[in-house]
Amino acid sequence: MSERPIDLHFWPTPNGWKITIMLEECGLPYRVIPVNIGKGDQFKPEFLAIAPNNRMPAIVDPDGPGGAPISVFESGAILMYLGRKTGKFYPQDERGRVAVEEWLMWQMAGFGPMLGQTHHFRIYAPEKIDYAIERYTKEANRLYGVLNRRLEGRDYICGSYTIADMACIGWAKLWERQGQDIAQFPNVKAWIDRMLARPAVQRGLAVNKEDRTNAAVTDPNARAVLFGQTAR
What angle do CA 184, 13, 122 make, to 5 degrees? Predict the structure, then answer.
């Protein structure tokens, strides 16, 4: 496998951590290109060229299919691409792959967005709206219950360790911010502890950690960039 590094356009958030964890687990060389989402780097034309949704993470692999460079945006798509590229953490058999894809899509469509809304209304919203806080805190609770049931009798979400686990851990480790009592979900708690004990997960979560701040809470300019976006 080529040793040319993959360019990772990244900011230390739960979505960004998915990819640093996967790259660290696979032992792939990579170069971090910071995308300061509080300053609007995600709207620069050069980033838009590889990430048309104006969201990080995104990668550019110089050794893509056929030896030509390829860019990939959306964290779930990046995880699947890297899983296929390396043959790691993404089963080769169809039944195993379907199970991983089910739980990866569960994270992409539910666990991430709903917990993100929980963060927003509990922490970032300038006006504390009781209905919104209750709505998303309860939905987060429901999703933790789903994950807790899934982890009954399993060390990892799909039995063996996969990209589904990598997709979820960055969100799950922030359970306190989501108003959850992790003691209600003992299987999730054990899984979080198991995940955070992995050296590659620790390295992935540590990438550019000094850039993780509370600017979205305290800086009105950052808030406008992050939460005031429209099509124009």
Answer: 55
What single string gives the DSSP state of each residue in 164-182?
HHHHHHHHHTTGGGGT--G
- Decide: residue 34, CB within 10 A, 0-12 exposed, 13-18 middle, 19+ buried: middle
C-beta separation of 4 from 184 below 8 A: no
Pairing mode, strands 6-10 and 58-61 = antiparallel
Which residues share a beta bridge with 158? Answer: 160
Separation of alpha carbons 168 and 126, rounded Å: 27
The model's pTM = 0.94
Q: For strand 30-34 and strand 58-61, is the pairing parallel, antiparallel, or unpaired?
A: unpaired
Average pLDDT across each block of 10 residues of the chain; the chain has 232 residues. List them in order. Answer: 86 97 98 94 94 96 96 98 98 97 98 97 94 98 98 98 98 98 98 98 96 70 76 72
- What is the C-alpha separation between 114 and 138, in angstroms, rounded? 10
